[in-house]
Amino acid sequence: SMMIAPDRVSLTWQPVLGALRYDVARGLLSDMGLERSVEQTACFAPDVTGTVVVDGAIPHSRDGYYYLVRSESGSSSSCRLSSWGVANETSVHACP
Prior knowledge:
The chain is mainly β. It contains no helices and six strands. It has strands at 2-4, 10-13, 21-28, 42-48, 52-54, 65-72. A three-stranded antiparallel beta sheet has the order 1-2-5, with no helix packed on it. Strands 4-3-6 form a three-stranded antiparallel beta sheet, with no helix packed on it. Mean pLDDT is 76; it is low at 87-92.
């Protein structure tokens, strides 16, 4: 499970047994109902070694963010690779 802390900028999740690091992706709630909405998701924080990230960004008025977190237990991989549950590796945009 994930939680947004009361400060509204810290995202935390439960650790996964055996995980060495996590990738976090973010998208806009307004894109959720669109066909191919996952393709609008962008890598937000790759290779996080703990279970918390801070996001100080403010979405546009009347919108919000959703987050996807995945664990990694082997060698580091690109945040773009297809293990986000999408059809191809270009579906999650690379981190800057």
